[in-house]
Specification:
single chain; alpha+beta; three-stranded antiparallel sheet; 3 helices
Length: 96
């Protein structure tokens, strides 16, 4: 079993994730639209490139499809040792 305190174990997990699905978008929860104004606001967001909206388990999300600036040409993290906390906490088991 992998030791979560060993950075090399995490690298191996990231390599299993190639082609880095989680590093090619980010998403965050949004309120469910309630009226026409809310829906028009969502339509405005969707009018922009690389934006989508989805619902998962009754929670609404906006997804921005954009590649992380720190990915290398072979889809590996170019700043792995200094990557942000959010990246460190991401679990391969919870990925696509």
């Amino acid at each position: 079993m992998a030791n979560n305190n060993n950075p090399r174990d995490n690298i191996d997990q990231c390599e299993k994730c190639l082609p880095a699905f989680c590093c090619n978008y980010f998403a965050f929860g949004i309120d469910e639209p309630e009226d026409r104004k809310d829906y028009e606001s969502l339509l405005w967001k969707l009018a922009h490139e690389k934006v989508s909206i989805y619902v998962y388990r009754k929670q609404w999300y906006i997804m921005i499809h954009t590649r992380c600036n720190f990915l290398t040409a072979d889809n590996k993290c170019g700043i792995y040792e200094n990557r942000p906390y959010l990246c460190k906490e991401h679990s391969v088991e919870n990925c696509e």
